Amino acid sequence: MSPPAATFPNEAAPLNGAYLKKGLPVKSGTPADQAKTLEAMAKNWETNFSFAPIRESQVSRAMTRRYFADLDTYAESDIVIVGAGSCGLSTAYMLGKQRPDLKVAIIEASVSPGGGAWLGGQLFSAMVMRKPAEAFLRDVGVPFEDEGDFVVVKHAALFTSTLLSRVLSFPNIKLFNATTVEDLITRPSPTPTHPHRIRIAGVVTNWTLVSLHHDDQSCMDPNTINAPLVISTTGHDGPFGAFCVKRLVSMGQIEKLEGMRGLDMNTAEDAIVKGTREVVEGLIVGGMELSEVDGANRMGPTFGAMVLSGVKAAEEALEIFDARKRNM
Ligand code: 48N
User: Fold this and answer.
1) CA distances from 104 to 72, 213, 226, 228, 241 (A)
2) Structure confidence at residue 2 (pLDDT)
3) What CA–CA distances, in Å, run from 298 to 119, 251, 259, 266, 271?
4) Which of 28, 61, 155, 306 lies most in the core, judged by the most C-beta atoms within 10 Å?
5) Subunit comment for this entry (predicted)?
6) In this model, does residue 26 exceed pLDDT 70?
7) DSSP for 39-82?
8) Rounded Cα distance, 250 and 263, in Å
9) What is the CA radius of gyration of the chain?
10) 21 pLDDT exceeds 50?
11) What is the reported pTM?
């Protein structure tokens, strides 16, 4: 038998406080004698502890009003970062720290941001970064052990969670996780030698769970975010990886992907950092996604290039952004 239907009209609850309805003895706030501190709660769970009252619709409205206000705010962003792995988050941190005036949206396909940076190599915990990348760790506030030419963060999750918390604390940065970039917004930008040249003007998004089912459901159209600059850090090739650069190839904007090469730590990390750049107008590529464009080596379980590629991507973005503003 189905549960009893609601028996009272669903009046809009006030934004700010408890839901008061005739016949529903719901009082706002907790009684004065209720424990308010952890010390006061300890061992008094039965006597003077209870949660303040709530109505389910208040929870729903607290979430939905914020989320849809964010969608409205970031529908026009200054910069969109695709992929919240170590490179994307490092990029966001540098932008958030330097430019509180810019609206930065991060689109992350997974429910859990962080990409491949929750563990070191082969699921081992420790994370290695070669110097001088420890300068970034110091800036973010991640403790490390100094081993001479490299440093070690005792658990990769300490790095990723600390960086993530710093990024999420910036008021001008919004993380849209469980959300996939399914395509790029483009505008014609022809030159005499490249009549079909385009520039990137934002991203096309959908819930990741929707993106995974386009083949077995009828058309589920996407949403969009306009932005004059997109920074793609979607990692090396894989189910979701290297998304934006693969799209550039399919749009004929770059001829082909050179493909990530074999592991060579000493070659790979410098190449990724130095190669981080605007690949086509309006799209900067960093992190391991870049290895697919340039045919750079992979570095395996060292993460210094990811963070410094993020530092460079942010620097490139601000130079481009400010130059465009000057030329407007
Ligand atoms: O961690 P990744 O995969 O990418 P990076 O470049 O930030 O860091 C790479 C690093 O973890 C390594 O691969 C290390 C250094 N190993 C190297 C080696 O030789 O093996 O993060 C990419 C993020 C992920 O969280 C994806 O879920 C996300 O990007 N993503 C997307 N998000 C939104 N829309 C998409 N289309 C999309 N594609 C990937």
Assistant:
1) 13, 28, 11, 11, 21
2) 59
3) 17, 26, 10, 10, 10
4) 306
5) Homooctamer.
6) no
7) HHHTT-TTTS--PPP--HHHHHHHHHHHHHHHHHHHTB-SEEEE
8) 27
9) 24
10) no
11) 0.92
- The answer, yes or no, to whether any atom of ligand 1 lies below 6 A from the CB of 298, is yes
Looking at domain 77-327, does it have CATH number 3.50.50.60?
Answer: yes
Lowest mean pLDDT among 66-75, 155-164, 233-242: 233-242
pLDDT for residue 12 is more than 50 = no
How far, in Å, CA of 228 to CA of 318, rounded? 12
Local structure of residue 121 (DSSP, 8 states): G
The alpha carbon of 117 and the centre of ligand 1 are apart by a number of angstroms equal to: 9
Give the list of residues 6+ apart from residue 41 with CB closer than 8 angstroms, or none: 35, 49
Q: Which atom of ligand 1 is nearest to the CA of 286?
A: 6
| Nearest of 119, 118, 229, 247 to residue 180 by alpha carbon | 247
Give the amino acid at 145.
E
Q: Is 177 in the pocket of ligand 1 (CB under 6 A)?
A: no
3-class DSSP state for residue 263?
Answer: strand
Give the number of residues written for the chain: 328
For residue 117, which atom of ligand 1 is closest to its CA?
11
Peptide bond between residue 132 and the one before it cis (omega within 30 degrees of 0): yes
- Residue 30 contacts residue 52 (beta carbons within 8 Å): yes
The predicted structure's pLDDT at residue 3:
60
pLDDT of residue 239: 74
User: How far does residue 244's CA lie from ligand 1's centre (Å)?
Assistant: 12
pLDDT digits (tens, 9 = 90+) for 244-297: 999 999 999 999 999 999 999 999 999 999 999 999 999 999 999 999 999 999
- In this structure, are residues 320 and 278 in contact, taking their beta carbons and an 8 Å threshold? yes
